[in-house]
Amino acid sequence: MVLLALVAAAPVVASYLAYYVFKPSGGATNYGALIEPQRPIPDTLVVTDETGKPMKLAALRGRWLMIAVDASACDKACATKLYFMRQVRATQADERERIAMVWLLTDAGAVPDVIKGAYPDTRMLVADPAAIAAWLPAEPGSRDTDHIYLVDPNGNLMMRFPKDPNPSKIKGDVTKLLKWSSIG
Q1: For residues 59 and 48, is the Cβ–Cβ distance under 8 A?
Q2: Which domain of life is it from (predicted)?
Q3: What phi-psi label fits residue 164: left (phi over 0), alpha (psi between -120 and 50 degrees) or beta?
Q4: N or C: which terminus of the chain has fewer CB atoms within 10 Å of its end residue's CB?
């Protein structure tokens, strides 16, 4: 009788130990780093749009924003980030209209024509580098210009992708978010 009680209780004891004592590590299915707590777009973050008019960045709420930060000269790393953003957006098929690509320029210099021509769907907005750095967190040992950021349609910064990212993994994260989110 005791043996029967032990056999019946074994799964309950094993589940208790697995849940409370031997906590599994990992379990994350996302590639990008979640920003906790989420940081809303500051109402004080004013950018200059393509026509030279100032606007609040928060005015772009309502769509998923993929954000890159860099100088207007756009070196190879900058062009790679813009390319990855464009490709990730393009792979979303019918859902791609829910995503807006934003390039926050840290200076008011001229953007090369080759870059303008290659990325016509990217909003190129000039912003104060100090205000951007205060809002966008970088990984330790890196800068905000090294990452691609994702902002949800409510205007909350929610994810940061690593320096030199894998675009297939970014695509996976964005696909999951668009699939399970009805906003934006």
Answers
A1: no
A2: Bacteria
A3: left
A4: N
| Alpha carbons 125 and 168: distance in angstroms, whole number | 26
Q: How many residues does the chain have?
A: 184
Delimit the domains of the chain by residue range: 27-180
The whole-model pTM stands at 0.84
Residues 110/71, Cβ–Cβ less than 8 Å: no
In the Cβ-directed half-sphere of 6, how many Cα atoms lie within 13 Å? 3
Closest CA to 131 of 100, 106, 159, 161: 106
3-state secondary structure at position 126: strand
Tens-digit pLDDT profile for residues 119-156: 999 999 999 999 999 999 988 899 999 999 999 999 99
What is the bridge-based pairing of β-strands 64-70 and 148-151?
A: antiparallel
The CATH T-level fold of domain 27-180 is Glutaredoxin (3.40.30)
Do residues 69 and 152 make contact, with C-beta atoms less than 8 angstroms apart? Answer: no
Say if CB 81 and CB 167 are below 8 A apart: no
